[in-house]
Amino acid sequence: PDPEPAGSDQLAMAGMLAAGIAHEIRNPLTSLRGFLQLLRADKQRYSDIMLAEVDRINEIVNELLRLADPKPREPEQKPLLPLVRSVVTLLEGQANLMNVRMRIETDEAAEVAVVVCEENKLKQVFINLVKNAIEAMPDGGEIELHCFCEGKRVCLQVADRGSGIDVQLADRLGQPFVTTKENGMGLGLMICRSIIEGHKGDLQFDGREHGGTVVTVSLPILR
Ligand code: ADP
Ligand code: MG
């Protein structure tokens, strides 16, 4: 039998997904293209970097395929910290290329805090936030990932020393296609917002005293 025609909701979702995928794949592609141009000058070094970038595209595509898994998933009970660690591992290559270091700090309670979540979606949130932090520091620096518990919530703060969020953007953050980047799609924070809402969590953006941004995700603790 013919598949049912897609409703406008489904079309909108497909468009959003396609845009999201394009967004994720474009960064390594841009980098590959640049290194291809440089390759003429210095073969060995640049081909190593290109290989690493190809591996990264692969990783991203694998992540996306996992995210796009159409099977409806039951929310799972997961400790938050290993999830944060896996995101750091995933983005280490990109951070290194930008001279950015990532440091995880956690209090005792957050060390074992469990949340009810769809793991891959939550991962996508942390990936988007850490990527924004990396992209905010073109001259490199340190990103602190701070996990702590506050009452019945566990929080993850992603703190960078970048440019800080443009004040004109403040009340439009999380709306689609809001971006200040030449190659940006402005979808990352929208995706973060909708996923965090779906997890009964909260997302907050603050400036830092000596420059930079702190993004705080808070989620209900299961135990
Ligand atoms: P994109 O990264 O494609 O631009 P996002 O939705 O992830 O889209 O972010 C939207 C905008 O919010 C960015 O273009 C940037 O201006 C701002 N922004 C987000 N995170 C940060 C950050 N850590 N530091 C400075 N600006 C940020
Ligand atoms: Mg982004």
TrEMBL record:
The entry's keywords: ATP-binding, Kinase, Membrane, Nucleotide-binding, Phosphoprotein, Transferase, Transmembrane, Transmembrane helix, Two-component regulatory system
Superkingdom field: Bacteria
Ranges of residues in domain Histidine kinase: 20-223
Broad class of enzyme this protein falls into: transferase
The enzyme's E.C. designation: 2.7.13.3
One Gene Ontology MF term: phosphorelay sensor kinase activity
Enzymatic reactions: ATP + protein L-histidine = ADP + protein N-phospho-L-histidine
Keyword Transmembrane: yes
Record has rRNA-binding as a keyword: no
Protein name according to UniProt: histidine kinase
Residues of the full protein shown: 85 to 307 of 307
